[in-house]
Structure formats: structure tokens, C-alpha cells
């Protein structure tokens, strides 16, 4: 007799080939699913992402629990990823690498997101009006290898000093496929007391329900 857990794993394995391989950040290390995500969003969601780490948000079988936010880091939580925390300094340039086995053209940005308020801190650090265009014979090199630079003052320094608060979020929306991809890198900014006190105050832009930068959504 097949146990229920085996049926779940079988269902995930059958589902994966049709949906596998779209895109994700591979460096710096991004949030992964784990027990805390399973508690919030369901074990099926965790199993699906473990089977295909590039899966779009729309294909993940999230639970309907109010504690699960699929459009914030695809449901992944800091509690499962404390060991992956990155430590950066003001003005530091951070190289990224992305894997995009199946491209879908659409906008993309890398932003600092306060996960406690689900809002963008300051301005996006990098914006692509058109990203991962499947009509191209070869993707531009900067689609899979790029960098962002942290500001030297402002809201990021003010809000991102404690672990578990801020992430560098890579957000990509494939317009034709109507699919959303997110990878989140947990980080803290290490600053001197003088710099911290001089950081400008102010709030970031709220993310809409699809996880996009509300005021920065651009279409071609």
C-alpha cells in the first residue's frame, strides 16, 4: 500500500517535468524552502520548490493560510535561512549570477525589500525594462551576470541593520507566460555609528499583491 507521503512525492515528480526550469538566482545564496515555510505555506509547496527550484510562483501549490505570502520571496522564510545571511557594507558592489534555462520576456528588477513591512526600501538598485527575451538567439550576458551597488546613505542603512529584516529581491515577470519569479538574498548592512545616525529617514514604496514595485512597473 502506498503511503500518503509517497503519493505527494509522486504527484510532485509527475508535475515537475511540465513546469521545470525557468529561472533563479544562484549567487549570492538565495532563500531556500524549509520547515518554517512548510508550516506557513504547506508541505506540498516545499516539495514542489525542492523538486524544481526555478518554478514560477503561479505553479507552486501554496496553502491558503493567511500566514503564507507567496509573493514575498516565493514563501521562503528567514527562519529556514539564517545560515545564508550575507553581510555587506555601504557602497559595496555585489555580483549576482542567475540561471535562466527557459526565458520569458518581461520586466525585471533587483530591489531591497523590508520583509517586515513588505515594501521596497529606497529605489530599485537595478531595473531591466526588457529581460530574458526568448525571441533572442542568445540572452545578453547581463541577464545572467550582473551587479548591484548598495547606497551609502538613506533608508537602506537605516532599516537593514538587523538579521531577518531586509533582502535583496530579484523580481522577474514573464509577460507572455504570465509567470512571476523571485529569489531573495538575506543581508544586513554593517555601518559605523556615525554613518547610521546620518542615514536619511523615509519610507519605501509598497509592493502590490503580485510582489512588484508598485510605482516602478514598466511595460514595453
TrEMBL record:
Chain segments carrying region Disordered: 199-220
Keyword terms, alphabetized: Copper, Signal
Cofactor: Cu(2+)
Record keyword Signal present: yes
Tagged with keyword Transcription regulation: no
Residues annotated as signal peptide: 1-21
Protein name in UniProt: Chitin-binding type-4 domain-containing protein
Amino acid at each position: 500500500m502506498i503511503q500518503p507521503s509517497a503519493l505527494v512525492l509522486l504527484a510532485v515528480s509527475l508535475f515537475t517535468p511540465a513546469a521545470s526550469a525557468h529561472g533563479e538566482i544562484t549567487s549570492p545564496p538565495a532563500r531556500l524552502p524549509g520547515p518554517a515555510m512548510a508550516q506557513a505555506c504547506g508541505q506540498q509547496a516545499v516539495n514542489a520548490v525542492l523538486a524544481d527550484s526555478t518554478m514560477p510562483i503561479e505553479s507552486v501549490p501554496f496553502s491558503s493560510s493567511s500566514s503564507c505570502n507567496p509573493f514575498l520571496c516565493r514563501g521562503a522564510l528567514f527562519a529556514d535561512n539564517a545560515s545564508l545571511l550575507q553581510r555587506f557594507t555601504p557602497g559595496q558592489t555585489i555580483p549576482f549570477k542567475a540561471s535562466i534555462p527557459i526565458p520569458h520576456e518581461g520586466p525585471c528588477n533587483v530591489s531591497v525589500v523590508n520583509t517586515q513591512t513588505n515594501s521596497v526600501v529606497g529605489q530599485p538598485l537595478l531595473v531591466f525594462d526588457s529581460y530574458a527575451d526568448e525571441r533572442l538567439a542568445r540572452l545578453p550576458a547581463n541577464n545572467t551576470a550582473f551587479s548591484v551597488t548598495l547606497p551609502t546613505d538613506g533608508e537602506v542603512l537605516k532599516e537593514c541593520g538587523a538579521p531577518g529584516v531586509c533582502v535583496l529581491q530579484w523580481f522577474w515577470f514573464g509577460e507572455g507566460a504570465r509567470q512571476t519569479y523571485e529569489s531573495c538574498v538575506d543581508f544586513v548592512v554593517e555601518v559605523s555609528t556615525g554613518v547610521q545616525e546620518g542615514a536619511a529617514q523615509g519610507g519605501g514604496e509598497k509592493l502590490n499583491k503580485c510582489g512588484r514595485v508598485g510605482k516602478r512597473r514598466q511595460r514595453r
